[in-house]
């Protein structure tokens, strides 16, 4: 008895789910990226050198909010489907903000109707 079950097919996980969830919270929100893209070119600052980021923080994709180790990796990223979808999403209408969510949930400014004269 014992051993592997012949009809059970278990697939190995190629990527750690824990790291995928961790990076989900480290990226900027869609609304913040959208505002960055809408800024005029004169307002954008050059990227500062940062030893903690990949490639000293010099190779950055503004649409996806990701840093890359060198130019070739960044250029390869620009050709991916994920990046192209993100660019298309950011060129469309503005993404939802926290204010939109509050209004949808009924937690926005109250609408009490027209003000009546106080006596």
Automatic annotation (TrEMBL):
SMART domains: ZnF_U1. It comes from Nelumbo nucifera (Sacred lotus). The keyword Cytoplasm applies. One of its GO terms (cellular component) is nucleus. This is C2H2-type domain-containing protein. PANTHER family: EXPRESSED PROTEIN. The keyword Iron-sulfur does not apply. It is found in: Cytoplasm; Nucleus. Belongs to the ZNF593/BUD20 C2H2-type zinc-finger protein family. GO terms for biological process: ribosome biogenesis. It holds the Pfam family zf-C2H2_jaz. One of its GO terms (molecular function) is nucleic acid binding. Residues 1-21 are annotated as: Disordered.
């Amino acid at each position: 008895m014992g051993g592997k079950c012949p009809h059970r097919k278990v697939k190995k996980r190629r990527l750690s789910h824990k790291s995928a969830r961790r990076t989900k919270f480290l990226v900027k929100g869609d609304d913040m990226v959208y505002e960055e893209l809408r800024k005029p070119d004169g307002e954008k600052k050059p990227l500062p050198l940062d030893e903690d980021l990949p490639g000293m923080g010099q190779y950055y994709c503004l649409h996806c909010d990701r840093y890359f180790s060198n130019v070739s990796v960044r250029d390869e990223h620009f050709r991916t489907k994920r990046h192209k979808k993100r660019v298309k999403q950011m060129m469309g209408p503005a993404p939802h903000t926290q204010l939109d969510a509050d209004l949808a949930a009924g937690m926005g400014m109250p609408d009490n109707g027209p003000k009546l004269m106080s006596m």
